[in-house]
Structure formats: C-alpha cells, structure tokens
Amino acid sequence: MKKQKTIAFFLRLAVYLAAIITVGALFFLVGYILVKGVPNLSWKLFEWKYTTDNLSLMPALLNTILMTLLSLLIAVPLGVFAAIYLVEYAKRGSKLVSIIRMNAETLAGIPSIVYGLFGMLFFVTALKLGFSMLSGALTISIMILPVILRTSEEALMSVPDSFREGSFGLGAGRLRTVFRVVLPDAIPGILAGVILGVGRTVGETAALLYTAGTSSDTVSGIMDSARTLSVHMYALSQEGLYINQTYATAVVLLIIVVGINALSAALAKRVTKRRI
Amino acid sequence: MNNKKSLTRETAAGRNNQVREGAARILFLAAACVSILAVLLITVFLLVSGVPAIAEIGVFKFLLGTVWKPGNDIYGILPMILGSLYVTSGALILGVPIGVLTAIFLSRFASKKMVSFVKPAVQLLAGIPSVVYGFFGLVVIVPLLGGRGSMLAASIVLAIMILPTVITVSESSLNAVESSYYEGALALGATHERSVFSIILPAAKSGVTAAVILGIGRAIGEAMAVIMVAGNQPRMPQGILKGLRTLTTNIVMEMGYSADLHREALIATAVVLFVFILIINFLFSLTKRGKKA
Description:
The complex is a heterodimer.
Chain A lengths: L1 H36 L20 H32 L5 H15 L2 H15 L6 H25 L3 H9 L4 H30 L2 H4 L19 H11 L3 H33 L1
Chain B lengths: L1 H56 L1 H6 L3 E2 L4 E2 L2 H32 L2 H16 L2 H15 L6 H25 L3 H9 L4 H12 L1 H17 L2 H6 L17 H9 L4 H33 L1
Antiparallel strand pairs in B: 1-2
Helix pairs in contact in B: 1-12, 3-6, 3-9, 4-6, 5-6, 6-9, 7-8, 9-12, 11-12
C-alpha cells in the first residue's frame, strides 16, 4: 500500500512537472524577448523608408500585410469552394473525396522549405514570375490551403442538416441553399481557419526566401521582390550586428502573431459555445 | 395566353438555374482538385529537377557519401541525413515525455481553471514563428551550451517547437478514452494515478503514436529555427555538443548562390527530405486507420 502511494506520488509529480515545463518554456521565451526587445523599440524602427541606419521594419510590415491579403485572395476561395464540394456536393464515401483528403493531408505535412523550393522551380522559374510578391503569395497559398480546407469542412459539417432540408423544402436549389443558408451559418468557423492561415503566413520564412526574395523596400506592385517581417527578422539576425533591433523586431512579430492566434481562438470558442 | 408566357419564362428560368447549378458544381469540383494538382506538381517538379543530379552523382555516392564539398563537385549527403535524424531523435527524447505528460495533465489531472490557463499557453506556443524560436535559441540556449551552435541546441529548440503538436493530438486521444475504463480501474482499487497510467494511457496508444509521428514530421522539416542554432558544418555529426547540418538547412544555406550541378544537388536534397515526409505521412495514416478498426 505504501509502495502504491509512493509510485502515485512520483507519477503525479512527473505530470505536474511536465505541465510546468511547458508553460515555463512559453513564459521564459515570450518574457525574454519582451524584456530585451521592448526597450529597443523606437520610432526609428517605424520610419517609412528602410536604410542601413534606421533598420526600419515598416516596409517589411507593409509587405507582410500585402502578402497576407494576396495569399488569402487566392487560398480562401479555393479552400472554401473545395470544402463546399466535399461536404455539400460529393457523395459520402466517394473515392474522389478520399483521394482529395489524402492529398490535402499530404500538403499539410510538407515542410515549408520544400514549398519554397517548389515555388522557386515552378512560379519563379517555370512561370517566369521572378522573385516577386506574386510568386511568394502563390507558394504560401498552397501551403495554407489545407488549413483553410479542413477548418471550412468542419464548419460546414457542423451546420445541422435540418437547415438544408428546410431550404430544399422551400424550393431552393443546391447552390442557393449553400450560399444563403449553409455558408452564413458556417462563417465564424471558416473565419477561425482563415485567421490561422494568416498566422502561418505572417510567421513564414523558409517558403518565402527563394520565392519573394529579400528586397528591403516596400513593394510598388505584385511583381516586386519583397521581404516580409519574418524574413526581415531572419536577415537581421544573420547579419549579427543589429542584435537590439532584432529583439525589437521579434517583439513586433510576436505581438502580431499572438494577437492573430487569440482572435482565431476566440472565434472558434464562440462557434463551439453556440453549438451547445 | 398570359399563362403560356409565364410558363415559357419559367422554363427559361429553370434552364438558367440548371446551367448555374451545373457551373457551380464544376467550379467547386475544380477547387477541390487543386490539392491533387498541387501534390502532383510538387512531386513532378522536385523529381524532374532533382533526380538527374542524383543519377549524375550516383545514387550511392549521393546518399552514402560522407563528404559535401560543392567547390570540388563532391556531393555526399549522408552527414545531412544523419544530422536530420539525430536532431529529430534528440527533439523526440526531450519533447515527447514532456508533451505526453502535459497532455495527461490537461486530460486527467488539471482542474477546469488550470486547463483554461495551460491550454491557451499551448496554443500560443504553436503560433510562435520559427524565426523567433531560432532567435531565442541563438541568444539563450546556444550561449548556455558553450556559445557554438550544436546538435543539442537544435534538439532543445525543436523539442519546444513540437510540444504543441504532441500535446494537442495526445490530449484529444486521451479525452476520447471511455470513462468506464477509468471507473473500472478505480473500482478494482487502483489509485487515480495508476488508473491513468496503466489503463487510460495504453488505451490511447494509437493517438499518442500519431502525435509522435506528427512531431517527427514537424521536427525533420523545420529549417529556419535549426539554421540559427545548429552550427551548420557540413561534416559527419561528431557529438551532441558539436555543430552539424540537416537536410533542410543544407538547402537554405546554399540555394542562394548555387548553380548547375550544385543547385540540382540541393534540389535532390529536398527530394530526399520529401521522401522522408511521405514515409512519415504514410505511417501517420496507418496509425489512423488502426484507430478506426
């Protein structure tokens, strides 16, 4: 009995310790970056033009926003439409559906550097788009496609069948049912997935290095080369001379990504709450 | 007369509707097939650009060669293959126990209040960009380990990075275990701890395995965090405190200035990485199928 108790005690200890390590790792990482980075935030870092003197992150920030919008413009319709097909049109258990799911899963597992190389070979070289915003956004949109597809699928599946039946009963066709009845109800869930995609785009580096390039200016068009904030931070840290500015850039990046994730989590929570 | 007119208008509208429905169906189907197209394109482009280089260098010389010297046209990627495997194994040794135990904590030990605190923390960990992880490793972990990039530093950073994957997937499989298992164990006189570890954990085995496999995929494919902490020397791994280079970092390091055979050899490196990932995906779908049966 006593032995039982000591074993139980150590198991309990291990479990609590693990949880403390997990949370501790997060707090240490975020805390360290904040403590070192916040004092280095200055107006110089947010000047409109990048020079080797001010190391402004503003152009990279603007590029990140443009890159994200452009990627969403491509990936969201593709992902949502694909989900509509899988949930609303395809026969349950059809062979095509399982093939599509398998491919989407494969896409989700491919490392970002492989996406980067593919983007370089296909968009940059074969389609002759060059190192550009467009090449980067196309690459990223394939990368975030599985995230958007899966969350949209789940959101559509969680819409009760009675909604569809009611709509059909009133004489609406499939298309009208999808856009007027099913989709509006699924929007918060889809949005949660889209925001996750935004988070991945903002944090991405490897897939962009050899597709969008590393030019440090704000783009003037989608055919310009552009570095996003993550790429900018990588470039700064590689040079090794600007450690303080790198800390500050990390703070900005961290705040954006944390905000995005919180937004997505809050939306997802609202969705599940409504269901119950 | 009037009646007839409205009838024809209706059938016209009906036909119009049918066309619209058909067009929408095709549009949705096309969007659904983009995933298939993307996987095909990625596979074809990597193979077409990478395989000729492997053929030119020689399969064995490429995969088992221990020297990587692009300047002398020597391309052996065994050091990088081993580098990736070592760094990933290290990340698993450190990350999996902590991840699975944290999942057990969330699923069976924590109060509701603690869950509402730890869970968002785990989600946050998943959202942090890999450059930030790498930078943290560079300024905190690398100095602690003697100031030079090393296998251990990379493994520690990757261990933190795979935690969210391991925790989330294991937790949901632990939550899915029927409560009658646990109650039965308690009724037989086992402690809470014992019931969790010898009844629930084994019952969730396939889910935990899936979590570990996903973690492997994430660790082996990570490039930016590793490049900042691993040292990146293209030589056979020489110990846990020595620098090494992985498949991913090999590509990032040299792609920028490579040309001709060197460039193709780097793409071939990605082919090898891609094959690893396909194997991991295959194993993952196997465990998932096992769970269903």
